[in-house]
Design a protein that fits this description.
Blueprint (H helix, E strand, L loop, with lengths): L17 H11 L1 H34 L5 H5 L10 H10 L22
Helix pairs in contact: 1-2
Length: 115
C-alpha cells in the first residue's frame, strides 16, 4: 500500500500571489495579521464615529428643548392668561357632590367591557 505525502500540493504559480503569501503568513502570525487589524479598526471606528453621534444628539437637543413656565403659557398665542387663584375659585364654585355617571356610547363592534 502506498503512503501519501503530508505536504499539500501547491502550484508554482500560486506561491507568487499576494493572497497565497498572506495565507502562509497568517498561519504563522494569526494575531498580528488578523486580530490586530480588527481591533484597530474597531477602536479607530469608534473615534471617527463619535463626532457623528454627537451631531445626532445635538440636533435632537435643538428640536426638544425644556421650556420655562412663561414659554409654556405662551405657546398658544390666542389663549388667555391663566391665574391659578381664579381657576381654584371657579372649581370651588361648582357643585361637585351632585353628579351623575353617564355611559359613553361605544362604536359599532367595540367591546363593551361586560363579560
Amino acid at each position: 500500500m502506498a503512503i501519501f505525502q503530508t505536504k499539500k500540493y501547491r502550484a508554482s504559480s500560486a506561491s507568487s500571489t499576494v493572497a497565497s503569501r498572506y495565507r502562509a503568513a497568517l498561519a504563522k502570525h494569526p494575531f498580528a495579521l488578523f486580530g490586530l487589524p480588527f481591533i484597530a479598526t474597531m477602536v479607530l471606528g469608534s473615534f471617527f464615529l463619535t463626532p457623528a453621534t454627537a451631531l445626532r444628539y445635538e440636533r435632537h437637543d435643538r428640536k426638544v428643548q425644556q421650556l420655562t413656565e412663561e414659554q409654556k403659557l405662551g405657546i398658544g398665542k390666542d389663549k388667555r392668561r391663566i391665574d391659578l387663584k381664579d381657576e381654584y375659585y371657579k372649581l370651588a364654585a361648582k357643585d361637585l357632590d351632585n353628579w351623575e355617571q353617564k355611559r359613553v356610547k361605544r362604536l359599532p363592534g367595540e367591546h363593551d367591557g361586560v363579560l
